[in-house]
Write a structure and sequence with these properties.
Blueprint lengths: L2 E6 L16 E2 L2 E2 H10 L4 E8 L4 H14 L2 E5 L5 H9 L8 E4 L9 H11 L4 E7 L4 E4 L4 E2 L7 H7 L8 E2 L2 E5 L5 E3 L3 E4 H7 L11 H6 L6 E4 L10 H11 L14
Parallel strand pairs: 1-4, 1-6, 4-5, 7-14
Antiparallel strand pairs: 2-3, 6-13, 7-12, 7-13, 8-11, 9-10
């Protein structure tokens, strides 16, 4: 089994804020490096491809290039708009002798060894395998329209003085239906595929609406299998997710570590 891992790292991460999400400190190392290290230690992994932002490659290489090279990772240009463009660009760099391709979110630095053991083992007998966590919470579909709660009349005097500054804005959407959570799972990464299958999936003409790699394989009417994921294998999207990931891994932010351990 020779696995080539693709790590899309070309996104803008607009929901995280102005700072570079992939540079955020996770136990003394940038998030992207921490994610790559997960795979650099695996015997099954033959190559790691990191696809960076095409319009900012010089700065990306300046920030990460040396360490990625030390870890044996190859850096290529990703896409400009959608994630699938980034993966498709990276597929060009997959070596011919790769038997499997894994795609993993750059912002999932908490993937543990047990999960990788399970998914690599399953991928030896199944053509497409993804990790999933069963949904236990109540799930509701809501309307796309967002409404704001109107202010109470007694707030009028304060508004006339402060102009509404400091008031909490409450956004609401109407519930359309409650969805049965039976047999529903939240899908994670890494997603692992036989190499020729994923290449066929990305050779399709229409990629619209593809939210993950498995959905493109499903469009070929090929079976995708789910193994047990890990609830701690979260994707960091917001600063609150970063705090949660540090708590899961038991690491502190730089400001709370001794000065000699901040870098």
């Amino acid at each position: 089994m020779k696995v080539c891992v693709i790590i899309p790292a070309a996104g803008r991460s607009s929901r995280f804020g102005e700072s570079d999400k992939l540079l955020q400190d996770i136990g003394g190392r940038p998030m992207l490096i921490r994610t790559v290290e997960i795979f650099s230690k695996r015997d099954e992994v033959d190559r790691i491809i990191v696809a960076g932002p095409p319009d900012d490659m010089d700065r990306f290489r300046e920030r990460f290039g040396a360490t990625l090279g030390f870890l044996g990772a190859v850096v290529v240009e990703g896409g400009r708009a959608d994630r699938w463009e980034t993966v498709r660009n990276a597929l060009v760099a997959v070596p011919e002798n790769a038997t499997h391709i894994a795609v993993h979110d750059a912002a999932r630095p908490g993937t543990d060894k047990a999960l990788l053991d399970r998914i690599f083992e399953a991928a030896q007998s199944q053509p497409a395998v993804v990790p999933g966590v069963r949904i236990n919470a109540t799930v509701k579909r809501i309307s796309p329209e967002v409404m704001k709660v109107e202010a109470n009349e007694e707030d009028g005097i304060a508004d006339s003085i402060l102009g509404g500054a400091g008031r909490i804005e409450i956004r609401t959407s109407r519930v359309l239906e409650t969805i049965s959570r039976e047999n529903l799972v939240e899908i994670q990464t890494p997603q692992v595929f036989k190499a020729d299958l994923l290449k066929r999936a990305y050779a399709q003409n229409n990629m619209d609406g593809a939210t993950d790699d498995a959905s493109l394989v499903e469009r070929l009417n090929e079976a995708v299998y789910v193994i047990d994921g890990n609830p701690g294998n979260i994707k960091i999207t917001t600063p609150d997710d970063l705090k949660l990931m540090r708590a899961i891994l038991g690491v502190k932010p730089p400001s709370q570590r001794p000065a000699h351990k901040q870098f």
